[in-house]
Every structure is written in C-alpha cells, then in structure tokens.
Amino acid sequence: MSITVKTGFSIYCGAPGRCKKQGNVKGECPPGRHGRNCVEFCRMNCKGCNRFTGVCEFGCNPGWKGTFCENECDSRTYGEDCGLSCGTCLNLEQCHHINGTCFKGCDRGFQGDKCTKECDNDRYGPECNMTCGNCSNAEQCNHVNGSCPKGCDFGVKGDKCDQGQLK
C-alpha cells in the first residue's frame, strides 16, 4: 500500500508496521524542481512552479503564457503576461514575443523597431520613404497615404498636393 502525503513524499507500507518514507525527506522540492522525488524540472520559461504538479503558479517569464509557460505570446501581443500590444508590423504580423520588435519591418506609415511611431518630417508610406506634397500651413500629410488633411498650399492641387507649381 502506498499513500502520497501533501508534503511531497510517499509512504510505502509493504506490511503493517513496516512503512518507509520515499521521496524528499524535508517535504519540499528545491526551487526549479517538482514531482515525485523532485526529479522533474520546472519549464525554463516559468517563474516558479508548484512542487507537486509543475504548474507555473508564479507566472511566466515575459513573452510566454500557458499553464506550464509552454506557449509564446500571440494574437499580436508580447512581453510580461502577454500584456503589451504589437505595433503596426508589416502585414500586421506577430511581433517578437518577448521584446515587441517587428521581424520584417513596418506597415505603411509607421517606423521604428517596434513600428509604433507614425511617419513624420514630411514623410509617408512604406518605410516612410515618400515625401509629402505642399500641405496648407506646412502641415504633416497623412502618414499612410500622403493626403493633406486641411488641403493644399496656394497654387498646388491634387489629393497629395503635389500637382502644379507655386506662382
């Protein structure tokens, strides 16, 4: 007969009165270990696991989720508890699950390693490599399509205020 005691060890009784303790004598596994005789290791993405089941009851390292911290952040999230949203990565792809960088660059109108900053300095479009037209009052054009929100300067026309010459 064998009984598992809550403190992390088993008692095996081959015959009445002849019981012996098996497993961890102190009743607790050292940090990072779990299971019978503490032979199992907690997952490396786990901040600390239950000494009996291995469940990551103290949470996961940044970029990981799941009962055993076995899954990378997804659904366009990253970081601690997958609580941060990815920027505007190219084709709205998943960013790096730990630090949020975009693997293939940014979608139109965004810049930076996390693609969280809109194009500026009279730039727009893919990789912010297109130049804005002559928007009224020297305003920044739309960071994605280059249109001028408040119209064109005098003497220019077109959706992007890039047709005609100033006179």
Helix fraction, binned, reads under 10%
Strand adjacency order, main sheet: 1-2-3
The poorly predicted ranges are: 1-16, 19-25
The coarse overall form would be: rod-shaped
Radius of gyration: 30 Å
Mean pLDDT metric: 87
Order of H and E elements: EEEEEEEEEEEEE
Tally of strands: 13
Could you describe the largest sheet, including whether it forms a barrel? 3 strands, antiparallel
Quote the distance from N terminus to C terminus.
100 Å
What does this structure look like?
The strands form six sheets. The chain has a three-stranded antiparallel β-sheet, with no helix packed on it. The protein has a two-stranded antiparallel sheet with strand order 4-5. Helix content is 0%, strand content 20%. The chain has 167 residues and is mostly beta strands. Mean pLDDT is 87; it is low at 1-16 and 19-25. It has no helices and 13 strands. The relative contact order is 0.08. The chain has a domain at 119-161.
Which structural traits does this protein have?
single chain; mainly beta; 3-stranded antiparallel β-sheet; two-stranded antiparallel sheet; 13 strands; 0% helix
Condensed summary:
With 167 residues, the chain is mostly beta strands. Helix content is 0%, strand content 20%.
